[in-house]
Write a structure and sequence with these properties.
261 residues, alpha/beta, Rossmann fold, OB fold (Dihydrolipoamide Acetyltransferase, E2P), 2 domains, five-stranded antiparallel beta sheet, 8 helices
Length: 261
């Protein structure tokens, strides 16, 4: 006997979810395990229910379907993804060119059935081609104990490069991310400012700047405070941050930012 496929539906519109539910009820060996109104809710439910297939609407508030699919790649065994969309010529062209399956609303039973039968997890190259449809993420995702942990970009105070990892600092905790600082700067350059070659700091979390003497008690300051660019390491400018005691040294090359602030 063929095992039942577990499906998750993610769409912010109740009529669209109802339509999918009705169509799926006529299919054998298909079981809806959860429904979500946005991508963030979908990811939390996917962590809990581990569906075989995720039906993701492209346009959803808080987190859209493209970003949701990006975060799913952090899972050891991500579900297959089928996108749903109203008429969007640009998105449809991207899907067609990269062999990504999608359903055009209003969804027909035969087309949904065919998509489910051939559904498969997105390959990295396919997802990479869809990123222009969602140029900036609202969250950073971390794989932790087999689950996807979402960190709102708005909660990140600084990003610090450490060997092959990047430390993500919020008011509550630090996380390790396997993404380069340069790539993060390209994506989030409007939100973060580079105060040091190893540190990007969220503009919204900078309280101000202060000149300090280096002392043994500065151990609390983050590692990127060791400024090899500065000819006078005994005195240095630091950025004071909201919600955390650490400070970030401003390198000599970036001190023009203080004068312009």
């Amino acid at each position: 006997m063929t095992p039942s496929l577990k499906l998750l539906i993610a769409d912010d519109e109740a009529p669209a979810r109802n339509r999918l539910r009705e169509l799926l009820s006529d299919m054998h060996n298909v079981h809806i395990v959860a429904e979500a109104k946005n991508g963030q809710e979908a990811l939390n439910l996917i962590n809990d229910y581990q569906p075989d297939i995720a039906l993701l609407d492209i346009r959803m508030p808080e987190m859209n379907g493209i970003e949701t699919a990006q975060h799913l790649q952090k899972m050891a065994h991500p579900p297959a993804v089928i996108f749903t969309t109203a008429f969007d010529r640009y998105a449809m062209q991207a899907f067609d060119l990269n062999a990504v399956d999608y359903l055009l609303k209003p969804i027909r039973f035969e087309r949904l059935q065919a998509a489910i039968h051939k559904a498969q997890a997105l390959r990295p190259k396919q997802l990479e081609a869809l990123v222009p449809l969602n140029p900036q993420r609202t969250h950073i995702s971390i794989a932790e104990r087999g689950r996807i942990l979402l960190i709102p970009v708005a909660d990140i105070i600084y990003l610090r490069a450490e060997q092959k990892y990047t430390t993500v600092r919020t008011a509550e905790k630090e996380y390790l991310l396997e993404e380069s600082l340069n790539n993060l700067e390209q994506e989030f350059g409007a939100i973060f400012i580079r105060l040091h070659r190893n540190c990007l700091v969220a503009k919204a979390y900078i309280l101000g700047y202060e000149k300090r003497l280096q002392s043994p008690h500065d151990a609390l300051e983050v590692e990127c405070n060791v400024d090899h660019e500065d000819k006078n390491p005994d005195k240095h400018w630091v950025a004071l941050l909201k919600n955390i005691p650490e400070t970030i040294t401003v390198s000599r090359r970036q001190q023009h930012l203080i004068r312009s602030s």
